[in-house]
């Protein structure tokens, strides 16, 4: 399995620039999630990686071999890339076994089909037709089919979209385990931040035609590069603040910030996650509970900070949840992000 290196990839359709000098490196055996809003160019990137589309500029290398550039275009069938499309796209008239066997060399075929069906836990269903499978099983067959020819890279195009939410988490975990067992290098494109954060070894955020931030799910979530990125990765609490003696001062108190250490008295924006807000009768700033929203595994409480009247959302695991109207104290667990300069409104990305 290979290391994927994409350099300065650009692609326009007419006057629309979709990819703009995009760089991405996926280490051997890792699964990278390319996360971006609808229409940001995720499928275009996958199609270029697969060789279905040619880039206007830039290079694609797999395991040190140049497979795509303006001068050199290795055709899709020679790239050793497996693709798991949205909704499986199995051949409806072929059995599971024949779907996986399709296109494999005759020699060793039966053994390879058995191996990959075993890998996805479906070796007993080889005689079934696709319509006799659940959505999750169909996606596992699609994965087996993609892995059967021993591809150097597996591309997954929003492969869990058609599954209902309960099944999605389960199939996601299974697919991840199968890719790991196969030692496969993978690129998963998705607009679903939870999917990206929970499934991948690295998350690469695609915005404005290029990767604006890449890193482990934990790093990109806890240390987003800007307010917009923070908002795209999950819910945020955004407050005005300023630096003071290596700390950040804001309506939630004096807080520790990630490395964004700035000179004292620098104004900026403080960003943290609602789950970092903890009710603690012994410390923190006073607040009043304005509203609560029961969400099963946790409760989102809207808190009005007593000193300034600013309202923030806290995701609480406290049981029972606090009463609306009650007076509490709230403190911040862990470090926050601080972005010096003009306050940027939180928004989702395009
Ligand atoms: N063949 C094409 N001709 C013209 N425009 C195209 C073509 N393919 C894609 N586009 C445009 O390029 C942009 C990116 O499309 P793409 O399908 O790559 O986005 P995406 O991030 O995969 O979106 P989604 O999440 O909605 O599937 C869109 O504006 C789309 O309309």
UniProtKB/TrEMBL annotation:
Residues 4-233 form the ABC transporter domain. Gene3D superfamilies: P-loop containing nucleotide triphosphate hydrolases. It comes from the Bacteria. CDD domains: ABC_Carb_Solutes_like. GO terms for molecular function: ATP binding. SUPFAM superfamilies: MOP-like, P-loop containing nucleoside triphosphate hydrolases. PROSITE patterns: ABC_TRANSPORTER_1 (PS00211), ABC_TRANSPORTER_2 (PS50893). SMART domains: AAA. Keywords: ATP-binding, Cell inner membrane, Cell membrane, Ion transport, Iron, Iron transport, Membrane, Nucleotide-binding, Translocase, Transport. Pfam families: ABC_tran, TOBE_2. This is ABC transporter ATP-binding protein. It comes from Lipingzhangella rawalii.
């Amino acid at each position: 399995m290979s290391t994927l290196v994409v350099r300065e990839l650009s692609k326009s359709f007419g006057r629309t620039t979709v990819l703009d000098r995009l760089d991405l490196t996926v280490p051997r055996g890792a699964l990278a999630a390319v996360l971006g809003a609808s229409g940001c160019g995720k499928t275009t990137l996958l199609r270029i990686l697969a060789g279905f589309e040619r880039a206007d500029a830039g290079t694609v290398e797999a395991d040190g071999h140049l497979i795509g550039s303006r001068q050199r275009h290795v055709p899709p069938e020679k790239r050793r890339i497996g693709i798991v499309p949205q909704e499986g796209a199995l051949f409806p008239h072929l059995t599971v076994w024949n779907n996986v066997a399709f296109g494999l060399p005759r020699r060793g075929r039966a053994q390879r089909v058995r191996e990959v069906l075993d890998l996805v836990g479906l070796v007993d269903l080889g005689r079934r037709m696709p319509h006799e499978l659940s959505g999750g099983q169909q996606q596992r067959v699609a994965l087996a089919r993609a892995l059967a020819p021993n591809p150097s890279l597996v591309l997954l195009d929003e492969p869990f979209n058609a599954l209902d939410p309960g099944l999605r988490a389960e199939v996601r975990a299974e697919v991840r385990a199968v890719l790991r067992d196969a030692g496969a290098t993978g690129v998963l494109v998705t607009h679903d931040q939870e999917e990206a954060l929970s499934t991948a070894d690295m998350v690469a955020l695609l915005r404005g035609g290029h990767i604006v931030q890449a890193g482990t799910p934990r790093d990109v979530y806890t240390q987003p590069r800007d307010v917009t990125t923070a908002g795209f990765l999950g819910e945020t609490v955004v407050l005005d603040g300023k630096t003071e003696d290596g700390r950040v001062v804001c309506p939630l108190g004096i807080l520790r910030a990630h490395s964004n250490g700035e000179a004292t008295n620098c104004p900026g924006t403080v960003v943290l996650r609602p789950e970092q807000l903890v009710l603690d009768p012994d410390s923190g700033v006073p607040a009043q509970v304005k509203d609560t929203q029961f969400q099963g595994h946790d409760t989102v409480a809207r808190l009005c900070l007593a000193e300034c009247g600013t309202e923030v959302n806290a995701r609480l695991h406290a049981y029972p949840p606090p009463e609306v109207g009650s007076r509490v104290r709230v403190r911040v667990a862990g470090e926050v992000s601080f972005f010096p300069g003009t306050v940027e409104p939180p928004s989702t990305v395009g």
